Amino acid sequence: MLRRKLVRLGKSSLVISLPKDWLRDFNLRAGDEIAILIEKNGCLKVLPPKLISQTKTNPIVINVEKCNQEKLLERLLIASYVVGRDPIIIENRLGLTEDQLNETRNVINKIRGIEIVKESPTHIVLRTFLDPTKYPLTGLLRRLTNLIRTMLEYLITAIKEKSQSYLEEIIHIEEEIDRIYFSALRQIFLAHKDETIASSIGIRSPSELLSLRMAIKMFELLADTLADLAEKGLKLQTSVFSQINEYSDLKSLLLDISTAMDTITKTLIYGNVALINELLNRIESIRFLSEKVDSFVVRKIRSMELACWVREVSWKLLSILETIRVVAEIAINIVVDKADRKFEC
To answer: Phi, psi (5° rounding) for residue 297?
Structure first.
C-alpha cells in the first residue's frame, strides 16, 4: 500500500502526489486529464485516460409498445446487459403492462448488479453497478465449476440417502449459476471490445475469449440439465430411489462427469496439454459406462417412468461429455497458439 500526505494548495484545497511508476506506465504528463470516482464505501478511484472511456454511458432505449411476444422483453434486457449497454431504458408511451413489469423484475432477480434507478408508468431506467474488472474471469469459471460439482454430488447423495431435499437444492444452485453465467458473459463481451478490460481480468489473447465463451456456456447448459433432471426426479417422488440405490455404474458415471468438469477448468486456466490429452483419452471409457447404464435400465428397472428418468440422466450427461471433448480440443489449440517457435510436451 502506498501512503501519501495531504498538502495544502491555496486556502481551501488539499492535494496529493501520484506514484511515479503509475505515471510512467500510463505515460502521463502535466496537463493530462484523469478521472476520479467516489466509490460507495468512500474510497477514491483514480483512472488514467485509457480507462476513462469505460465510465462513459452506452445507453439503449427499448420501445415495448408492440412487444407482445412472451419473454421477448426479458431476453432483450439480458442481451443488453451482456453486451454492456448501460443505462437500459424501457419505454411504453401507452403505459407499461403487467407482463412487461414482471419480465423486467424477473431479469433483475436473475442478474447480479442491475437495478431500477428510475421508474414511472411509462418508462423504467436500469443501471448496472457491477465493475467488469473486479473479478478475474478464471475466478468465475472456478465458481461455476464448484457449483456444478456440488449439483452432481447432491444428485449422487440423493440416490444414496433416498432424500428428495438434495434434488431441491440442485434447483436452487442452478439459479445462482445463472447469475454468475450472465456476469461472466458480460465480461467476455466487454473484454472483446476493450483490451484494457481484457488485461484486467486476465485475458491475454482473443483465442482465450472464444474458448472461455464456449466453456461457460457448457457449464450453464450442464446446470440447466441437472436442474431439469432434479425437477423430473421430484415428480417421481420416492419411487425415484427405489430401484437404483445400489447401482454403482450410475454413481460412477456422475463422478466421472464431475471429475471431467474439474479437469476441463484446469486445462483452460493452466493450459496443461498432458492433462487435456488424459481427459480426451478417458472420455471413451466414460461413454462406455453410459452404455452400461442403459443396459441396466432395460434389464432391471420395471417402472417405466423411473426407467425413462435414469436413461435421460445417462443420455444428457453423455451429450455434455461431448461438449467437454470439443472444449478440450480448443484448449489444445490455444496452448499451441500461445507457444513460441519451439513447443515441448
So the answer is: -60, -45
Retrieve residue 323's grid coordinates. Answer: 461438449
Residue type, 312: E
What CATH fold (topology level) applies to the domain 7-55?
A: Pemi-like Protein 1; Chain: D (2.10.260)
Q: What is the DSSP letter of 64?
A: -
The dihedrals phi and psi of 162, each to the nearest 5 degrees, come to 55, 50
**Lowest-confidence range among 127-141, 251-265, 287-301, 310-324?**
287-301
Burial of 68 per CB tally in 10 Å (0-12, 13-18, 19+):
exposed
Q: 220: which 3 cell numbers?
A: 450453464
Q: Where are the domains of the chain?
A: 7-55, 60-128, 137-338
Record the pTM: 0.71
The 10s digit of each residue's pLDDT in 287-330 is 777 666 666 555 666 667 767 777 777 777 777 778 778 778 87
Say if strands 60-63 and 88-91 run parallel, antiparallel, or are unpaired: parallel
